[in-house]
Design brief:
By secondary structure, the chain is of the alpha/beta class. The protein has helices at 24-27, 43-47, 62-66, 86-91, 104-120, 122-130, 133-136, 162-173, 197-203, 223-226, 246-254, 294-312; strands at 7-10, 31-34, 52-55, 73-76, 96-97, 154-158, 177-181, 193-194, 206-209, 234-237, 260-263, 283-285. The strands form 2 sheets. Strands 8-7-6-9-10-11-12 form a 7-stranded parallel β-sheet, with helices on both faces. A 5-stranded parallel β-sheet has the order 2-1-3-4-5, covered by helices on one side. β1 (7-10), α1 (24-27) and β2 form a beta-alpha-beta unit. The radius of gyration is 22 Å and the shape is globular.
């Protein structure tokens, strides 16, 4: 297909590019229609003439795909693609191209920002200094709480893809012992130790989740597994909110079954009607920003452009239906 004839529609582009990146490379591949957000009742009208749809979290279900006869390729500006009806796409031989690996460094950085906020309480100390506690101190320093040290602790990782491996490298640099549970235990994980799921929960001082959500692992973190964890353990989730049974996590925090949780994702996003974890003690929550450093979003943009260009040139890449 000629570039001038390829019609591309970006239906929810704001989270990828809130204004600090450029769409020019994508625009050079065809006729681009760009929307920051698209309400469900406007999807068909905006997508009806598109050969390629670029979406992030917007749902393209069986109903939507059936009403888009021109559609020939779906590009997801994310690693996860549970918002796309894959069977509907497969029945039409529409490739679904995602982006893998763009956010590993960004997510790993955020994991440790969450962890260090809990261990070193930087913002709490800053606030106490601003409130005059240092000025009033009899000694040259003071403590809000005991400061734990990460060296020598066990860092557990659920899911050892590119993000999990990036997190593991940082944990090792802190002098931590790293254990992991992964779908491919046969790979050489050295110096990371592979463990079964029960031991992952039982042995981890810090447990960080880094696997995509599926029917097999929904509510992986539940009351039974939380009860296996150390009372001093910290749970971190920068993957998908559905990995955690939120009512069970609230119970675990309220009853000091574990010490703390640090979450960048929730079961429903945005949580327009609130979330029960907002009321849980020792629960730190950020608004799904682990993936979103400027550098990571640029890499995501570059991968998306390459996916569209691959379709245009007959060399489709990152097609999840080919896996």
């Amino acid at each position: 297909m000629e570039k001038s004839k390829l019609r591309i529609a970006v239906l929810d582009g704001y989270t990828l590019n809130p204004g600090d990146l450029s769409w020019s490379q994508l625009e050079s591949l065809g006729q681009l229609s760009l929307y920051d957000h698209t309400p469900p009742d406007a999807v068909i009208a905006r997508a009806i003439d598109a050969d390629v749809l670029v979406v992030n979290k917007l749902v393209l279900g069986k109903k939507e795909i059936a009403q888009l006869p021109q559609l020939r390729c779906i590009c997801v500006t994310a690693t996860g693609y549970n918002n796309i009806d894959l069977e509907a796409a497969r029945s039409r031989q529409i490739p679904v191209c995602n982006a893998v690996g763009y956010g590993a460094a960004s997510v790993a950085q955020h994991v440790f920002s969450l962890l260090l906020q809990w261990t070193n309480q930087v913002s709490d100390y800053h606030q106490s200094v601003q409130e005059g506690q240092w000025a009033k101190s009899r000694d040259f320093c003071y403590y809000l709480d005991t400061i734990p040290e990460l060296a020598g602790k066990t860092f557990g990782i659920y899911g050892l893809g590119q993000i999990g491996q990036a997190v593991a490298k940082i944990a090792l640099a802190f002098g931590m012992h790293v254990i992991a549970h992964t779908r491919h235990p046969e790979q050489d994980l050295s110096p990371i130790q592979w463990v079964n799921l029960e031991d992952l929960f039982r042995l981890s001082d810090v447990l960080s989740l880094h696997a995509p959500l599926s029917a097999d692992n929904q509510h992986l973190v539940n009351r039974q597994r939380l009860s296996l964890m150390k009372p001093s353990a910290i749970l971190i989730n920068t993957a998908r909110g559905g990995l955690i049974h939120e009512a069970d996590l609230k119970w675990a925090l309220e009853n000091r079954v574990i010490a703390a949780a640090a979450l960048d994702v929730l079961s429903t996003e945005p949580p327009k009607e609130g979330n029960i974890l907002f009321e849980a003690p020792n629960c730190l929550i950020t608004p799904h920003i682990a993936w979103a450093s400027a550098a990571a979003r640029q890499r995501l943009m570059d991968i998306t452009v390459a996916n569209v260009a691959g379709f245009l040139n007959g060399r489709i890449q990152n097609n999840v239906l080919a896996c």
